[in-house]
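Lecture notes, unit on protein representations.

Consider one protein chain, 361 amino acids long.
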Amino acid sequence: MAVNGFDALDTLGLKAAAGHLGFSTPLMSMYLGSNGKHLVDFDYGGSLPDGTTARTMTRSELYSMLRQEVGRRGIRIEYGKRLTEVEEMPDGVRAGFHDGTTAHGDIVVGADGLHSRVRTLIYPESPEPRNIPLLNTGGIVPAGVLPPGLLDVEAGRMKMVFGKRCFYCYMQDPDGRTWWFANPLQRTSEDPATLDAEARKAWLTKLVGGDRTIMAAIITATDDIIRPYTTSDFPSIPRWQRGRLVLVGDAAHAASPSSGQGASMAIEDAVTLGRSLQGLESVSIPEALARYENERRTRAEAVVEWGRRNAAPKIRGQFKRVFEDLVLPAVFRGIARKSEDNFDWVYRHHIEWDTATSGVH
């Protein structure tokens, strides 16, 4: 969760609750795996005025916190429903589900992800998600499992490595656990998602085995490695809303995990949509949804493209890797010199609840 996501959560009164999840990760360092060379250090978005930094957490922790807040506010949740149709009426909408049940309301918010059903109802000709040829996997090593003194990064810093055959990152939390993720290339000749746990571990260990890092030992010490899954993003669709139907989050603008912005952008959407609808009569909802889209579209699409650019250096065949290992040090030195100018537009976005438009502070 980046600092702009925490800033948006503050509007909902949830920043403090989210600040107890996971652990602070305000720093990142880049390395080459082939020779262990240090490339550059970055501030991961800086901090908010109260000292809040980016935090690493499990998705389940974030979901659980939000679900508890929904219950505290008396909002009903129903499970096991699959949307099939939506009928718009003069005074609202009727949603139909696969089990024959229906629900009525003022609005349908499609917070239903990359393969959104609501998106196809708003715009049936919507393009398909765009593939990025990287896989995602990772795991957590309990404290005390790795040999003492092996880990070469302090708590709160992400060590990111451009390996010979795979990009990966590892970090340590204050309790001594080691968190890691890896982005192997997606190849047509193999499907690592079909591997069993031991074969998956062997496959990943082989990918990082030629690097001058401790990643092979970290993988070996991990009992439960996430089954590899594909990477996609969703750059643009002609419209996010129609009548009383509207999209938020990945349903409208899924960003590559390399952006580190998926959750934060969805929360920004939610706050902006809520502000657009605040105090409105039902008849004014379509106009409010159009204003919401107009405010969010440019920023969201820019973040998606930024995430895709972040993913590009991870896509490295053998010949490209040799060339990039030579030029990456100079590239990252240039980025570091002007990092604040490069990234402020991402991390310093602030939504003013009581004004018609948001601004960057």
